[in-house]
Amino acid sequence: MPAVEINKLRIQLARLNSLFNEPDAFYRELRDLLEKYVDHAYRPGSEVPGLPILPSYRPPALVGRRLELDLTSLSQSYPEQAIRIVDRLWKDSYLETRLLAVTMLGHIPLSQAESVLERLNAWAVPTEDRTILEALLNKGTFRLRHEGPDALIELYEGWLTTPETTRRSVGLKALLPLINDPEFENIPPIFSALFPLVRAASPELFNDLSAVLIALAERTSVETVYFLRQVLSSPIAKETPRLARRVLPQLTTAQQESLRAALRLLN
């Protein structure tokens, strides 16, 4: 892995940042910078299942951190230019450039919220690379989660009500960063969006629904038990009781007994 000379890196970043108003020139400069730090010692044959499949520069961690810091700051200060840069970087096939696009997207101010939401809707598709999709749903929603969560929930509700099972799966995965964010407090709309999906739980969505319900139980166990008891009192699919049982380890003894009592009524 190439050694990083701090002063040289500062000069390279200054040159890159000066091109923030020129998306194509910025992209070329970024690509050239990353190519200077390519890890030639990496051998793709050693890759293990589950790691990113996109080609990667694998630059030193210091280079990646400095790029993220500079570009998130610029994205906050110059949101319109940032949108154009994000679009250009997203077209690239390399892991690092697309992850930078995602990180920048998550720090663009709410003055460009509509543009950010449009890109989340277009890019968070089931066929997207797993690493990129996870980053998009986490880092790419950072500012909206904290400053415009209602718009984000509205977007996710659209995904959860689509006829496409794979798109609903993406919607369920998207809920996790919201639930796990301690600053996010508007949990009731999440329960409302989940009700029909849990009631009609399908095998295809079982793992995603389990992950969301477990996260909710860890975050707010009292409300989760109340929600599940409501679901179990309505007509349900055969997978629904198994979903409820998945939550039991996250509950107190009294809460477990309350939920088990609702489950026993099904017999």
How would you portray this structure in words?
The protein is mostly helical. The protein folds into two domains: 1-110, no CATH class; 148-267, Serine Threonine Protein Phosphatase 5, Tetratricopeptide repeat (Alpha Horseshoe). Helices cover 67% and strands 0% of the residues. The protein has 15 helices and no strands. It has helices spanning 6-17, 23-36, 61-77, 79-90, 95-105, 113-123, 130-138, 142-147, 149-160, 165-180, 188-199, 206-219, 221-232, 240-247, 253-264. Helix 3 packs parallel to helix 5. The protein starts with 5 loop residues before the first helix and ends with a helix. Mean pLDDT is 93; it is low at 45-49.
Helical percentage? 55-70%
CATH topology of the largest domain: Serine Threonine Protein Phosphatase 5, Tetratricopeptide repeat
Rounded average pLDDT: 93
Shape summary:
elongated
Count the E strands: 0
Q: Provide the succession of SSEs.
A: HHHHHHHHHHHHHHH
Q: Any idea what the radius of gyration is?
A: 22 Å
| Distance between the ends | 62 Å
Structural class: mainly alpha
Count of DSSP H/I helices: 15
Second-tier CATH architecture of the largest domain: Alpha Horseshoe
Proportion in β-strands: under 5%
Report on the biggest sheet. none
The structural domain count equals: 2
- pLDDT below 50 for ≥5 consecutive residues: which ranges? 45-49
CATH uppermost class of the largest domain = Mainly Alpha
Output the CATH homologous superfamily of the largest domain.
ARM repeat domains
